[in-house]
Protein: Coproporphyrinogen III oxidase
Amino acid sequence: MKKCAIIGAGITGLSAAYYLGQESPEIEIDIIEASDVPGGKIKTYRKDGYTIELGPESYLGRKKIMTELAADIGMKDDLVVNNTGQSYIYAKNKLYPIPGGAILGIPTELRPFITTRLISPIGKVRAAMDYIIKPKPMNPDVSVGAFFRRRLGNETLENLIEPLMSGIYGADIDKLSLKSTFPDFKKTEERHGSLIKGMRHNRKGAKSAPKQGQFRQFKNGLQSFIERLEEVLVSRGVTIKYNHKVEAINKTSQGYEITMNGETQMYDSVIVTVPHTVFKDWFNDGPLDYFQTMKTTSVATVVMAFDESQVNNKANGTGFVIARNSDTVITACTWTDKKWSHAAPKGKTLLRAYVGRPGDTVVQDNDDAAIVKLARQDLDKMMEIKGEPEFSIVTKLYNSMPQYEVGHIDKIHAIQHYVATHYPDLVITGASFEAVGLPDCIAQAQKAALKIAHR
Structure:
């Protein structure tokens, strides 16, 4: 019987094991995990009526692969949809509603954009020049910031687009690769000659759709999805080796020797799903040197629970993001009890703030108490909060956001070609490669599993 090692029991590793087992049930699968629990960054706090995500909060419902996997493992009825509500941008020391019709900050409706005070009259005129500015070749890649600054101007970029886009990748948009993250915007510009015109055209088909939340969760938290997936895998004979740290992978004529906890075991195939910060020292090949210098951002989430009488929130909505030129430590905040009905008991207010920008060391330099204090100081600028929280939870995610800088995807494609040629029956995948969202990780896992199954 052939054996496959899957390194990492995060969502990518567990999903890879699921799809490989579906496609090739005859393969013996070992998942090797350095920690004592599955899920990677996914962790849910469940106590006293609270269901709080300490890592990723949810996933985009339009990326259906995660919903399909949930249904496959019997969790279709556990899915919940976020409540819709107004979102805000904090800029110029004030909360501004995101203009209606804006898609990731790109205006598609005239009246809301004209009437917003988030952008000055001059800034609005500059954004309108998108209609007459001709598309420009990417040569072969450009930063997200350079692309949108050229199309819509600096003010719309800084006050509207940057706060929404940078939060997805925890990145500096003037270094973030357009080709690696939002290539469809370039295609829209080229097809229609104008980004705004193209986005308006793309929206027409969706206008008749009923308005509903675009995010998905589970009534018992994302961790319940991980727990169920683990349960299914174990029932199918998959072995999960917890507290096993991989120290080396060596290619031999028989397959791959994996050294873990000082012992060596032989496998016919390997799927590596851990971050590049973990696997980079397992390969000394020159073409993989990119991972030695690939940057990351460390982030933290700060959850604070209050009685609803303690918080006077004049802005009625589900949360806000913060423009990078603001004098704050936090980068965004979700009014979690409003966004997710299952997250907090009735009568409680739950705030979830995000800390950590590319290049800063706030997360590394401060203990939990200091981070709570810094986050509270920022939140006090934006709403009236009386007294101390009933409890607070800080979760630090060191080096958790890989930085897809300009040229990233081309380097990744070259690496994937090299690995396929020089390491047959070994696949490296995960968030360091093509996308950081949970469904994206599952899609990459499925792709990796199919490669191994069809060798």
Q: What stands out?
A: The chain has three domains: 3-36+222-294+405-453, 97-204, 296-402. The mean pLDDT is 95. Residues 37 and 242 are 7 Å apart (CA to CA). The chain is about 35% helix and 25% strand.
